[in-house]
Design a protein that fits this description.
alpha+beta, Immunoglobulin-like, 2 domains, 6-stranded antiparallel sheet, 4-stranded antiparallel sheet, 20% helix, 30% strand
């Protein structure tokens, strides 16, 4: 009887925690839509990739046809500019065995030396240092290469307002 009681209490605690998380998440989303972000229009990068705007210059994360990741520096007018001192680390794929990509400079951009893993909606972590002594900026998102029916970009670079 005591074991059933403890199991029931544990189950109730998990349900309560999930409900609290869901309530906080939905109110946080409402705040983001109303107040938690700038009302700047989302823009895809010049190659159709995801624009990372948390660093200056902005960087475009783009997956090529051969699944290599291309990182391009972009100015405020969405024009490609040469990379300077930026260093980028990208990891992703399976959460149990993530792949860490290495990059080489080519034509003013960074290109991964091997392809990003195959799969649907894989987690990606991008770590950026704009200079050798700057703090690392981390961006996390899912690499979903399905086409958005509205903007026609791949979902990881979608510029629409719908939830991804």
């Amino acid at each position: 009887m005591k074991k059933q009681h403890n199991t029931l209490l544990s189950l109730m605690a998990v349900v309560a925690a999930c409900a609290a998380f869901a309530a906080n998440t939905s109110s946080a989303r409402a705040d983001e839509k109303d107040h938690g972000h700038s009302h700047e229009k989302k823009v895809a990068g010049p190659n159709g990739g995801r624009l990372i705007t948390s660093v200056k210059p902005r960087l475009e994360f783009f997956v090529t046809k051969d699944r290599k990741v291309k990182i391009t520096a972009v100015d405020d007018h969405n024009n490609v500019i040469p990379l300077a001192e930026q260093s980028v680390k990208v990891s992703g794929g399976s959460r149990f065995k993530p792949v860490r990509l290495k990059f080489e400079k080519k034509d003013g951009a960074l290109i991964s030396t091997k392809p990003f893993p195959e799969g649907k909606k894989l987690p990606v972590i991008v770590q950026i240092k704009t200079t050798s002594d700057s703090k690392t900026v981390t961006e996390k998102f899912y690499l979903d290469q399905n086409k958005c029916p509205e903007c026609k970009n791949e979902e990881y670079a979608c510029i629409c307002d719908h939830d991804h």
